[in-house]
Specification:
The complex is a heterodimer of chains A (117) and B (110). By secondary structure, chain A is mostly beta strands. In chain A, strand 4 and strand 5 form a beta hairpin. Chain A is 0% helix and 54% strand. The chains are: A mainly beta (117), B mainly beta (110). At the A-B interface, strand 5 and strand 10 of A face strand 3 and strand 8 of B.
Chain lengths: 117, 110
């Protein structure tokens, strides 16, 4: 059974750096073709893909956010970490991590991050 | 503005068949498979269709997907009240080298 759970701050101030951790179980990020990605959703708005890291440490980023994002993995801890710099109120959203196999096929419950001073 | 275009809303009565469209381009739908996600109110998205027309285990066969050229469709037959949700299409985009989502379609069961 594949499960994922996001953790991190619920409130960050403008200009701060956000660090989110995705802790997963039921699969290994050392298995060929497997990945973990991040998707966010501002309140009442659509899904937006952010980043993806593959089993071989290959990384992909949303072109519009690439300069602000870093995704890393710790295979031994079954964790993937996403950092986003220079947070702004428009970055207020629910952030989801998801297992990437047949696309994003298993999702975490999401964590709401509010950016406000 | 989303790379993939979906109608913002759709509706139907119980038992009806409804379709939701998703329009893209040669760099995404035209050259890669499409996935569909269902998001019930207050919950995380759930994979509904993958590889254009494949259903994960547990997804009823009332849900079906198709693709033609740079467009795709999700069909829901025998509409039920519990199908009321937001539906998103998604595809890999070769030009952007990443995933793109549609703007979502809110399905209302009248």
């Amino acid at each position: 059974q594949i499960t994922l759970k996001e953790s991190g701050p619920t409130l960050v101030k403008p200009t701060q750096t956000l660090t989110l951790t995705c802790t997963f179980s039921g699969f290994s990020l050392s298995t060929s073709k497997v990945g973990v990605g991040w998707v966010r959703q501002p309140p009442g708005k659509a899904l937006e893909w952010l980043a993806l890291i593959y089993w071989d440490a290959d990384k992909r980023y949303s072109p519009s956010l690439k300069r602000r994002l870093t995704i890393t993995k710790d295979t031994s801890k079954n964790q993937v970490v996403l950092t986003m710099t220079n947070m702004d109120p428009v970055d207020t959203a629910t952030y989801y991590c998801a297992h990437h196999g047949r696309g994003f096929d298993y999702w975490g419950q999401g964590t709401l991050v509010t950016v406000s001073s | 503005q989303s790379v993939l275009t979906q109608p913002p809303s759709a509706s139907g009565t119980p038992g009806q068949r409804v379709t939701i469209s998703c329009s893209g381009s040669s760099s995404n739908i035209g050259s890669n498979t499409i996935n569909w996600y269902q998001q019930l109110p207050g919950t995380a998205p759930k994979l509904l269709i993958y590889y254009n027309n494949q259903r994960p285990s547990g997804v009823p066969d009332r849900f079906s997907g198709s693709k033609s050229g740079t467009s795709a469709s999700l069909a829901i037959s025998g509409l039920q009240s519990e199908d009321e949700a937001d539906y998103y299409c998604a595809a890999w985009d070769d030009s952007l080298n990443g995933w793109v989502f549609g703007g979502g379609t809110k399905l209302t069961v009248l």
